[in-house]
Structure prediction request, 467 residues.
Amino acid sequence: MSSAAAKAGSIGRGPRGLPLIGVAASFRGDPLGYFVDLMHRYGDVVWFRVGRAPVVMLNHPRAIRHVLQDNHRNYHKSAFYRPLKPLLGRGIFLSEDATWLEQRRRARPSFAGPRFEFMAARIVDATTDMLARWRAEGAGATIRILPEMMRLTLDSAARAFFATELTDQHTPVFDALTVMLRQAERRVWATLPVPDKLAMYARPSYRRAVADLDRFVWALIEDRRRDPLGEDDLLTRLVHAYEPVDEHDQTILRDEVVSIVTAGHETTACALAWALCLLSRHPDAAARLRREVDEVLGGRAPTLADLERLDYTRMVFEEAMRLYPPVWTLSRVALEDDEIDGVRIPAGTTTMLCPYAVHRHPAFWTAPETFDPERFAPGADRDRPRHAYFPFGGGPRVCLGNRFAMMEGQVMLAMLAQAVDVTLEPGQSLEPEPMITLRPRESTLMRLHWREPTDATHSASPFAAGV
Prediction:
């Protein structure tokens, strides 16, 4: 680290922190509230240290655009992503430069427009199966909403990307990711770095989680090797790209599949769980959502062509991601000295971009803590800077699956609204768990109330019947 970077924490406004550990101890109890408070207290540029690392928190959309888009080549994933290495390895999420570009080029056809009709149908299949399973649990059943949404989106991703239907693998994958993401979050904000091998050795539960996830991924890979499909299937494409030449290639194949599995279901599941929790707290919005899907779909399953008419469904999903962005903070390290809006950014400085805070910036959002899907009505963003809202990142490294996630969210919310009202159990609080992703607490309970057919639905429909 350059000497200029070592002094970066003292050249601008921000909390002083403590010797050696910086502000690390200050946000342990409530990191979300802490970073929002920093934005309100210090403005659009906030300097602080985590351990010895200088960090500048950038809260203005113009600065965010500069880091993610205008000068993106100067900014790589920061050291704060290092704890994700045991999970994601050298997959597309953590790779850089030519390696990242090649990985993205290889995966892009599987996320292209011509595939979307096929993927929408697979999303419908996964959601139909979930509704049938819920119905079998009986009237008034309660569910833990986060594991249920994780199961749904894992099913959907497996069918859409890997042409695979899962059976009983959901719980081990959910449990493994929970252990690994919680451990990664602890290490991100640790005052002293802990080597990967030591972190695994010190926590048997972590070693078991890695082994469980690897077992799931290698089973997918071996099944596809025995039964290869066409080039439109992402798993087949990846297996062909990393034919078993040496151990290095096999490790990267594992990392690529884990990255797709994790990113392909974790973030959408979080957004869906938050959307359902928020709708439960706002019955007027839930009623409007039901009216829209009844009028547009008339009880049948949605298709890709229906999505442009499911405006309010999209608006609810986007507002849920504004209040509770699944990836709630991003960070990039400056490779060379830079300047953003007159602020000097020395080489080696970590730039922190926090969607959770920026999505509450009072200059860009009226009553920012209020759930209001109308913020995303057609044309409502006309005067709002683009990077005031960035749940999928931005620039060349914008999430490759952002269009898939939006389609998935609309289809699943529409199908749920057709068939069932999902309400928070009395006494449940909307308490976020800020790991690498922003989940509602795993214990959050919701109750299922099956809808009766309405004039807008067809009694013969599986959704109207609650199947």
User: Anything to note?
Assistant: Residues 1-88+328-390 form a domain with the Cytochrome p450 fold (CATH 1.10.630.10).
